[in-house]
Each structure stands twice: as C-alpha cells, then as structure tokens.
Amino acid sequence: MAAALLLAEPEPDLRGFLERHLAEDGFEVMGARACGEALELAERARPDLVLVGTPLPDAPGLELCRRLREGEPGRSWNRDMPLILLGRAGADAVDRVRAFERGCDDYVAKPFDYDELLARIRALLRRARVGRDVLDAGHVRVDRGTRRVSVRGRDVAVSGKEYELVAKLATDPVRVFTKDELLRDVWGYRSPSSRTRTLDSHASRLRRKLAAAGGGPYVINVWGVGYRLLADAGPVS
C-alpha cells in the first residue's frame, strides 16, 4: 500500500511540483496550503509523513510542527508520524535547532534537490515502519509482522477480523475509536452503519479472549461512541 504524505506548502508552484513528482514516485499525496487545513487532513486522513513548508498563511511552519507533535484537546492524529520542515532559503544552524526542538525529524532548506528530499522521505518512512511492526499496549502486544497477539506473553488465538480490530485499537490504546471509524477501517464500510452488530459481536469475543489470557479490562465499550483497548493510560506494573 502506498505511503500517504501530507504536503503543507503555501507556494502553489512548489506544491504542484511536489504533488506531481511524489505521486509519480508511488506516494499518495494530500496537499494543503495553510495550517488549519493541514490539521484537518492530519486528523481525517492520518498520513504516514508530513512535509511542512514555511511560512504558512495562518501560522509559521514551526507552529504547525509543534501542534502536530503535541496534539490538541479533542483532536486526534498520529503524533509520532515523521515531520520534515521545508525551511526558508538561507537557513542556518539556529533555524535547524529550533525545528528539531519543535519536533521535526528532518530539515530541508529551500531550494532543495528533489532526489535528496525523496531519499530523506523514504529513509524516515523506513525507520517509522520498523517502529510500527510491534504495538505494545499495556500487557497486550500485537506483532504486525507475524499477526501474533499476546497478553502477558501468552499467545491469544484470534480470527482475522478480531486481529484487525485489536491492531487498530492498539495504535492508540486509550483513544476512543468511533463505531463508524472502526467499521470503515476494519470492515471497509463506506457509510454509517450503526445498526449492524458486526462490530459489537467481534469486540465481545475479542474481549473474552484477551481477558482469558490474563489481566484487563480490555476492549472497553464507550456507550454511544465506540471502543478503546485500555481503560486508562495509567502505568502498567
């Protein structure tokens, strides 16, 4: 599956150039011209990497990087996704240090060589992919390379959809995923399907299997909203 890139770049010509060439190199590219638009796309589309140009019309590029990395109340996206700042021409060491302090993973000053930028994007995606192969959520571990689920080191036999459900919940274990979101991402439903019992029945079976392996509670039903994997974000002994 193609990696999804969010490109927040205020200059139309540069944004168009990067959108065209990155798409030709196999990426799914979403363009934004402003900070607010980029945050909405980050929440809705959950990109694998973000390219941040500066200055954006409604905020400095560093401000967008900070908000993406720190998160915001009532909003959710992957705060660990790689961020590359496309800095201004003539940037110096101080500019780079400030970018890293705001949570950037790399800094590329304009004008830049496209092939070099492409190599940096691919390198960051490789590192991020390795880090995502195993998801640890409290005592629950999901190994996405082997599709193995375990609790306190004990393997749990799950069906295909139960695995996809727990893997989705484990990506952000204390976040409440809405039912429509889970039905879309796990079952592929493209329209609201709140009346179906598919999700509830799978969640119930998954809850019983994880509990039987030890500990819990796991797969918490937040009534009227959806599910999360862990009851809270407290420390696990």
- What is the CA-CA span between the terminal residues? 37 Å
Under CATH, the topology of the largest domain is which? Rossmann fold
Structural class: alpha/beta
Strand count, sense and closure of the main sheet? 5 strands, parallel
Q: Which architecture of the largest domain would the CATH scheme give at its second level?
A: 3-Layer(aba) Sandwich
The geometry reads as elongated
Beta content: 15-25%
What ranges have pLDDT less than 50 throughout 5 or more consecutive residues?
Answer: 233-237
Q: How many domain regions?
A: 2
SSE topology string = EHEHEHEHEHEEEEHEHHEE
> What is the oligomer described by this structure?
single chain
Annotation, overall tally of beta strands: 12
* CATH homologous superfamily grouping of the largest domain: Response regulator
- Strand arrangement across the biggest beta sheet: 2-1-3-4-5
Provide mean pLDDT, rounded.
Answer: 87
Summarize the structure.
By secondary structure, this protein is an alpha/beta fold. It has 8 helices and 12 strands.
Textual characterization of the structure:
With 237 residues, the protein is an alpha/beta fold. It has two domains: 4-132, Response regulator (Rossmann fold), CATH 3.40.50.2300; 134-230, Orthogonal Bundle (Arc Repressor Mutant, subunit A). It is 41% helix and 21% strand. The protein contains eight helices and twelve strands. It has helices at residues 12-24, 35-45, 61-70, 93-101, 114-132, 160-170, 179-187, 198-213, and strands at residues 4-8, 28-32, 49-53, 83-87, 106-109, 134-137, 140-143, 148-151, 154-155, 177-178, 218-222, 226-230. The strands form three sheets. Strands 2-1-3-4-5 form a five-stranded parallel sheet, with helices on both faces. It is elongated. The chain starts with a strand and ends in a 7-residue tail after the last strand.
